[in-house]
Specification:
mainly alpha
Length: 137
């Protein structure tokens, strides 16, 4: 009887092995079908994805070129503003030295002349008063 148990155990093992092999084969076929479906989906969508990536790359290149051009223009504008500031400072200095300071000197001279004139007038009035008093007497 021991050999009969061995045969029964071997038969049960083969039956379990066959069942597991059948389930495994079915899963492998199902996985194969899913892989084929995935391949078909990828075949349909990969070209569109590539086109989108190419378009994104072209857009990024165009954006980079635009940003570079804007940077150069901003740099030129900055240099222009610096030039304007320097010219404005030079103009302010020239106006101060050529117009304002001479006018201030002239104004000071006129003010001094007016002060002298006022002082002379003040001196003349007392002389007139004295002469008038002498003439009345």
């Amino acid at each position: 009887m021991p050999w009969e148990i061995g045969v029964l155990a071997a038969g049960a093992s083969l039956l379990v092995l066959a069942a597991v092999a059948a389930v495994t084969a079915a899963e492998i076929r199902r996985t194969g079908r899913r892989a084929a479906e995935l391949g078909a989906v990828l075949d349909r969508h990969v070209p569109a994805i590539r086109q989108n990536l190419d378009e994104i790359s072209r857009s990024a290149d165009a954006l980079h070129a635009s940003l570079r051009a804007l940077g150069e223009r901003a740099s030129e504008t900055g240099r222009g503003v610096e030039r304007i500031i320097l010219e404005t400072r030079k103009l302010e200095r020239d106006l101060r030295e050529g117009v304002v300071e001479p006018l201030q000197r002239i104004a000071a001279g006129v003010s001094a002349l007016l002060a002298v004139g006022a002082a002379l007038r003040d001196l003349r009035h007392p002389v007139r008063r004295i002469r008038r008093r002498q003439g009345k007497a």
